[in-house]
Structure formats: C-alpha cells, structure tokens
C-alpha cells in the first residue's frame, strides 16, 4: 500500500513501533491463514473461476465491516484497497498496530460515514492478510502455495469480492470506492456488475496499467527474484525470506508514490545525522535513510510472493482491451453514478488517465462527475489529509444517497 | 420536486426552467458551480449533468452532489453520443466559445432539444456606445473591456436567428429579457427585440 508519509520532516521512524519488527513478522505470518478479522470460507462446492482459466477451491476471503447494514440492505459501501493495503481500512492493523489506512475517510462522521453506511473492506485475492494468496497454506498439499497459486487478475479479485458480497446477502452495493489498484477494482466492478453498483468512486487510477507503470513493477519483481533467499519462490519451505529484495522493491515503488515537489519539500538534499558527506555509500542523505526505513518496515508486514502476485494483477489490467479496444464499451448502458478523482502531481496515474475514463463514460452516456484536486503530494495524496478529497467524497455520496433514497450524512463541513 | 420561490432566480434561469419538461435528461454546458442544474433538479426533477471549463467551479458543484465534469464546449462535446439528452443547455456561454457554429451543431446532435441563452449585442445601448463613443460597449451586463473579456464571439438576436437557420435548427420558442432580467411580455418582430432585448433565450430543435 502507498502508506501514509509521516507529516513530520523527520526521516526517522516517527515513534516506537508497538511490536518489534521480528514480532511483527511472526504476527504477519499468523495472519496469512487465520486473520484477526472476519473470514468467509468457500468450499469445493463454491469454486472461484479465475481469468487464467482454472478454478480455485477451496478458497477464503478476509474482511472487516463497519457500521450497520440497513433493513433494505441498500447502504453498503465496498472499499477496495490499494496494492499492499488490507481489510483494516478504519481499524487498527493487527500486524503494525497502526490505525486503519483510510481512517480519515472512513468512520463515524467521516466522509464515508459509518453512522449511515455499512462499510465492507476485504483483503484482495493474492494478498497476505487472510485472503487466499501465495503465502497461504494450500489445503490440497498442506504446504504454502508459493508460486503454485495461479496468477490472479483485478477481475479475479473483484469476482471474489462479488461472492463475498453475495454471501453477505447484499444484492446491490450503494457504492464501491477505492484509490490506485483499489480504483481499478472500482472500474472493474462497475463494468462487470453494473446492476450491482449504484455509485462508483475511482480515485487516482487508470483504465489500464501503463507501460511505465509496468516497468516500475518489473524492477520491483526483479529485485525480489534476485534475492538469493527468494529460492525460486520456495523460501517458506527453505525457512528463508527474501527481505533485501522485497525491501528494494518497496523503495523503488515508494518513489513513484510521491512527487518531486513533495520529496524536495520533505528532504531536499539534507543530510541524515551528520554535518558533511562521508564519501561512501552509507545513507548520507535523509531521503536515503527514509527509503531504507520504508523498505525495512514493509518486509515485516508483507509477503514477497504476494508482492509479485498483486503487482502482476495491476500490470494485466486493461479495461479497454477486455472490451474490444474501446473503453466506452466497458460502461455501455450503465446506470451507475461515477465520481472520478485525480491529483495534479500524481505521475503514476496522471489526470490524463482519469480524463480517459471520463471521456469513455460520457461516450457511454453514463452519469459522471470528475474532480481534479490540486495537491503537491503526488499519488499518495489520496491517502493523506486532502480537504478537497474529503469534501468531494462527502458531497458525491450525499447526492447519491438522496437519489438512492437512503439517509445521507449531514454536510459536516 | 419541491415548489420553490423563484422570485430571486435570475431571469434567464427562470425562463430556462419553463422551457424544460419535468423529469427529462439535461446537459448544462458551462454550468459554473451548478446553480442552474440544482434549480432544474429541484423544480423540474430532471436527471441533470453538467460541465464547465473551471475545475474550481466543478469541484464545488460535485461537492454539492451534482454530476459535473471539467470540460469545454469547443473540445469535449464530441465525446457525447447522439440524442444522449432531452435538452442540451448553453446558458450565457455561446459568446465565449471558439467556434459557436460548431458548438451549436454539436448541441443539436446531443440534445433532442437545445436551449441557448445569450446577451444581445444588438441592444440599443450597445449600439449607442459604439455610435457615439466609438468604443466597444461596457455595460452592467457586459462588464468587460474588449481586451480582457471571456466573450470572444458576440452576436445579436438576429445573428442568432440566422445562425439557427444555417445549422438547420427550428426555433420553437424564444423570449427576450429586459435590463432587469424580466420577460418582455409582448410579441414583436425580431428587429424590435434585437433593439430592446438585453438578453434572449431560445428553444431549438433539429429541422
């Protein structure tokens, strides 16, 4: 996940972690099969069809819910998380002990108001926090899947979420919202199940993963696979973990989540704990120290093979290609109300990509709103304190709730 | 739909509301922060969409719960399918477009009916300013100097009638408004309206 940058200028860990890194890693390992969150299991009678052509069974999906489902079951909002996020959107993460990754957005009185809406957030297929992924135990062999798990796609992730939503007895979601890879899932939901999505909010995302984005992911995957401890994906069996490779992958990815401006404002060329450069390869600069810290903390909560799977899922996403090369075809005759959002300094999913979505929605005659938010903080802005983002989300959901005939939160701003 | 007190509402907006059938699908081009859209939704129960060139205005409109995107009439109308809306509305925007003829043609393609309101450059006050001062008119209704105005293609009521003819549009209804934004309540030939109308609202459809 594009984790919150700390708001302080320090590149050091901002506070003592609740659990030490090694404890975190063991907690993370426990969470892979038996998450602390809710869990839905699907047996052999309910297999999950995968885009690559096979079926997965048995399988499981870990999720959290917040708020109450109303009697008509019309107030459910599905939140889709980004690349390395999890189901703990608005509650403490059991591995890191940190607050939910979008607790500014989701919660009582927040724009996605859990006093009014019933919020569901599930760990994605291929993830490593309780939903079936490469770090899970394969019930057939009783060993960790590793690379034996078929490659999954955004379509597969959404299909698994649809089965969860159905199992929860919800016919139509009031809204599906998410940023980045979560935004891809939102688009996939609206395209694959238009009748089940009343409103859709894709944020800081695109209709396909660009060549440049695939390139960055490939650097990350190669870093993981070049680590001798990766053991061709069999590291669990060998009792090893490719921490260095995964850490480098995270460092590279993290740069893409920020803008040049935000990096400059935060770090500039400032030195870390020294007054002069050392003429060596230590972390002289604050930015180096910051990235190393980001890499190191990431490996304690995330599985290396899972990183390969979820990045691949994003790379394969191309909504237009799946609809005869014409993006508008993905949304033909859709009654879903869309609110697309982008950020001015996001170069991973620039505004032009959101505009492609908007143009396609217009061409399909869909109901669409589009807001570009001025922010200096790059792609990560969707996870940060951006008042315009919250205002737009609240306003859009309020308008949609009115149209849906469900109580909307009062305009709290 | 709620009955609202329309006495504070801008004159052209009031007429625009009258021109639009309840419950129809409406696209408001150049919608600003969505005032007219909100009015149409509240009084006529329309399914309303809009766009505007200013992202700031758009953000405000979306935060009000309206379906609005950033875009401009010259470039973004082409993305909309034929007959996508019952009404395509261009409220005080025609004179700010690069290519009014092309824009009007697009409107007639997208909307089954088209509503256009615009300031009438043929009003006698404008004529007088040009005639006696020899300078481009600056009035309460056209408050810009010629060099910093967003209005790049002014027209008169008679110009607009001629343009409608050229793009094969039929005038179903038209109203002229006086300086206070009140309807000029009598029927008159175009040249009279062209002289005394401060602004005009037209309802068109394809011939």
TrEMBL record, chain B:
Name recorded for this polypeptide: Methionine biosynthesis protein MetW
NCBIfam families from the UniProt entry: metW
Transmembrane segments: none
């Amino acid at each position: 996940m594009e984790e919150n940058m700390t708001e302080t200028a320090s590149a050091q860990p901002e506070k003592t972690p609740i659990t030490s890194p090694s404890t975190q890693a063991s907690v993370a390992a426990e969470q892979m099969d038996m998450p602390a969150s809710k869990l839905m299991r699907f047996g052999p009678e309910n297999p999950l069809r995968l885009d690559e052509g096979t079926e997965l069974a048995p399988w499981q999906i870990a999720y959290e819910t917040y708020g109450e489902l109303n009697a008509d079951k019309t107030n459910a909002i599905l939140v889709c998380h980004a690349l390395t996020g999890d189901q703990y959107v608005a509650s403490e993460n059991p591995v890191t002990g940190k607050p939910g990754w979008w607790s500014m957005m989701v919660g009582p009185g927040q724009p996605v108001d859990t006093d009014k809406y019933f919020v569901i957030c599930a760990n994605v297929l291929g993830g490593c926090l309780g939903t079936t992924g490469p770090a899970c135990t394969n019930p057939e062999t009783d060993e960790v899947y590793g690379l034996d798990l078929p490659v999954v796609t955004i379509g597969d992730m959404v299909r698994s979420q649809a089965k969860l939503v159905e199992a929860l007895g919800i016919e139509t979601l009031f809204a599906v919202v998410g940023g980045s890879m979560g935004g891809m899932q939102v688009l996939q939901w609206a395209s694959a199940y238009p009748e089940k999505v009343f409103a859709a909010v894709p944020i800081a995302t695109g209709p396909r993963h660009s060549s440049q984005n695939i390139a960055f992911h490939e650097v990350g995957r190669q870093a993981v696979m070049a680590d001798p401890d990766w053991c061709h994906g069999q590291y669990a069996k060998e009792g090893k973990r490719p921490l260095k490779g995964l850490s480098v992958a995270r460092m590279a990815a993290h740069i893409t989540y920020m803008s040049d401006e935000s990096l400059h404002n935060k770090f500039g060329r400032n030195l870390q704990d020294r007054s002069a450069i050392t003429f060596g390869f230590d972390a002289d600069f604050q930015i180096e120290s910051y990235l190393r810290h980001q890499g190191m903390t990431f490996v304690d909560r995330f599985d290396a093979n899972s990183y390969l799977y979820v990045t691949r899922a994003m790379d394969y996403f191309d909504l237009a290609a799946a609809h005869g090369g014409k993006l508008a075809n993905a949304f033909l005759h859709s009654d879903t109300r869309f609110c697309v959002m982008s950020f001015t300094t996001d170069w991973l999913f620039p505004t032009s990509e959101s505009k492609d979505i908007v143009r396609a929605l217009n061409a399909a005659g869909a109901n669409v709103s589009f807001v570009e938010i001025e922010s200096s903080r790059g792609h990560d802005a969707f996870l940060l304190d951006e008042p315009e983002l919250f205002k737009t989300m609240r306003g859009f959901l309020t308008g949609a709730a009115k149209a849906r005939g469900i109580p909307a939160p009062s305009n709290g701003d | 739909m709620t009955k609202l007190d329309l006495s504070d509402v801008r004159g052209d907006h009031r007429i625009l509301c009258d021109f639009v059938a309840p419950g129809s699908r409406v696209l408001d081009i150049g919608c600003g922060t969505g005032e007219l859209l909100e009015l149409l939704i509240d009084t006529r129960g329309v399914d309303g969409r809009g766009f505007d060139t200013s992202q700031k205005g758009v953000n405000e409109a979306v935060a009000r719960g309206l379906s609005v995107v950033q875009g401009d009439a010259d470039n973004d109308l082409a993305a909309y399918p034929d007959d996508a809306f019952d009404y395509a509305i261009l409220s005080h925007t025609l004179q700010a477009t690069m290519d009014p003829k092309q824009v009007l043609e697009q409107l007639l393609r997208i909307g089954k009916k088209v509503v256009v309101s615009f300031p009438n450059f043929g009003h006698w006050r404008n004529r007088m300013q040009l005639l006696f001062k020899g300078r481009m008119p600056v009035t309460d209704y056209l408050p810009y100097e010629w060099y910093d105005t967003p209005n790049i293609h002014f027209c008169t009521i008679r110009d607009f009638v001629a343009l409608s003819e050229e793009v094969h549009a039929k005038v179903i209804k038209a109203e002229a408004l006086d300086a206070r934004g009140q309807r000029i309540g009598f029927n008159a030939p175009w040249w009279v309206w062209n002289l005394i109308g401060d602004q005009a609202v037209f309802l068109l459809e394809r011939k």
